[in-house]
Amino acid sequence: MTDDTKFHHGDAPETAPIVEMKNIEKHFGNIIALAGVSFDVRPGECHCLLGDNGAGKSTFIKTMSGVHKPTKGEIHFEGRPMSFDSPRDAMEAGIATVFQDLAMIPLMSVTRNFFMGREPTKGSGPFKRMDVDRMNQTTMDGMRSMGINLRAPDQAVGTLSGGERQTVAIARAVHFGAKVLILDEPTSALGVRQTSNVLATIDKVRKQGIGVVFISHNVRHALAVGDRFTVLNRGKTLGTAKRGDISPEELQDLMAGGQEMAQLEGSLGGTV
Amino acid sequence: MTDTTPQAVVDERLKSESFGARLMKRPELGAIAGVILVTIFFLITADPAMFTLSGIINFMTPAAQLGILAIGAAMLMIGGEFDLSIGSMVAFSGLFFAAATVTFGMPLIVAIPATFLFSAAVGSLNGFIVIRSGLPSFIVTLAFLFILRGLSLVGLKLATGGSTQLRGVRDAIEGDWLAPIFSGDAFGGMFAWLAERGLVETFNNGAPKVPGLPIEIVWFVIIALLATWVLLRTPAGNWIFAAGGDANAATNSGVPVRRVKISLFMVTACCAALVAIITVMDAGSTDARRGFQKEFEAIIAAVIGGCLLTGGYGSAVGAFFGAIIFGMVVIGLTYTGFDQDWFQVFLGGMLLIAVLFNNAIRKRVTGER
């Protein structure tokens, strides 16, 4: 793992996508969870994936992060066709996912959580040990670059607020070389102040040239940082809009109205 | 959104922490405070002989024997599991070791590694069943508490033809070059040198009253240092805390939780084997009651040392001091006018205070209110 996260800045939306998912379908037995979803992320953009509960957001990001294998469809990573066998594969390629449970241990220090499972070492043989100074320094720097000043790197994660924990998880993913960062409803359990902190963090990550996939069912949070918006409904994409091409009301209608339409269609058309 | 926030602002909502508050967050604080309190108690009530060199060696020897087990138990508890079979494991590996040397006449260079391998295998069986079944380690190792104790009895009777004691270890290992590493006293020369200069108490003939440092104390200190180093300074230590703190989160972050836990069961079993080897060589025999109830004493020492029963928090230094408290109380009461049997009351009281204290500390650390 390197801490090289400096890519090209600015004019992101015109560059080639890092990850491109084409007509992804996912069936679980006789249930069609995803029925042809296309989605892509470019370096330095924040692409919001919106949808209500049961729309297929979770299944879709799990396909993207290597948990599920798609039944049909193609995944292109940096232009090449790619197939992930495990989350580990996707992680190593540079797709980091911050799930809602964050994979953090409250009793352990921020530093120990930051490097959990990937501790840098120095020395060799029986004297091989963790490089604690470097770990502490990296953690402090990583958190500071996200706008959070830790009291001390040995502070327990349990003493941090929900937003700060979210930031630790994001900083960790960025440090370990993520090219695409998938955030699964990072703001759903947070207060107003903490939400704005997390949104500011997303903006900082994007500026480092990382493609952010921001999953949410809150239109206002999405509009605050998003460059592009894709609405998912009943396993299908209702469309993708650029920032400025769509008003908050339209987006809200697309999410709410779209669902009503789909439900209506579903009950009229009959699925039996 | 522009990036105009200054980079190193001090958060005005943070109170600067006093040295005391920082100290409060160390898991071993309770045990160190306990050692100080118990020392003060015995300085007041006990015969001054308790705190002479020979008195200290007197209570440090049982403390060291328990402490080796307690450090193993503490590491396992930090990793989120229990082992109630360590007391029985002492008897079982004691039997194995005695049988290897007496019945089969193996030299120590073969018998000792064989005993460790055998114990590690039993430990890994414990761990394997716990990991595979997903059952609480409490219940699995409780089963092994009885299985191993029973096997020790049966095995002893087989090896001796009906007795529950196997003698003759001392004769069997007589003159073995490895013996001084696991029995007797260390630094004898240094103690003699100190005696010559009148720095330690001597008998009338000039020999020091304490011939050397009992070898278990040396092992105790080495193991405490080693365990502390592993826990605080190696990736393996981080994995142990992570596995005990939240096995699921640890697995998702790439920590090999199963391997960590099974290794910890093996380490604990090897600690039991070390105590068995030392005590069997010291006594020259083994019997089925060896290590009786040591599992509880070891867990109590680990808890006094700051380990949480829920895992993910604790320290080897804490267990080190927890075991010393234990030794001081057991032996210290004989230096006082109190009835020996107060020991159990004292022990239960200490455990209760330690658990209440640890619980409060955990809430502070996790920011829970």
Automatic annotation (TrEMBL), chain A:
GO MF annotations, alphabetized: ATP binding; ATP hydrolysis activity
Protein name (record): ATP-binding cassette domain-containing protein
Pfam families, sorted: ABC_tran
UniProt xrefs under CDD domains: ABC_Carb_Monos_I
Annotated ranges, domain ABC transporter: 19-259
PANTHER family registered for this protein in UniProt: CARBOHYDRATE TRANSPORT ATP-BINDING PROTEIN MG119-RELATED, SUGAR ABC TRANSPORTER ATP-BINDING PROTEIN
Protein's UniProt keywords contain ATP-binding: yes
SUPFAM superfamilies, per the entry: P-loop containing nucleoside triphosphate hydrolases
Keywords: ATP-binding, Nucleotide-binding
SMART domains listed in its UniProt record: AAA
Gene3D superfamilies associated with the record: P-loop containing nucleotide triphosphate hydrolases
Keyword Repeat: no
From TrEMBL, chain B:
Membrane topology: Multi-pass membrane protein
Main location, first listed in the record: membrane
Molecular-function GO terms, alphabetical: transmembrane transporter activity
Membrane spanning stretches: 29-50, 56-78, 90-118, 138-156, 177-195, 215-232, 262-284, 296-314, 319-336, 342-361
GO cellular component term, pick one: plasma membrane
Highest taxon, organism lineage: Bacteria
Subcellular compartments: Cell membrane
CDD domains: TM_PBP1_transp_AraH_like
Record keywords: Cell inner membrane, Cell membrane, Membrane, Sugar transport, Transmembrane, Transmembrane helix, Transport
Protein function: Part of the binding-protein-dependent transport system for D-xylose. Probably responsible for the translocation of the substrate across the membrane.
Name under which the protein is recorded: Xylose transport system permease protein XylH
Source species of the chain: Halovulum marinum
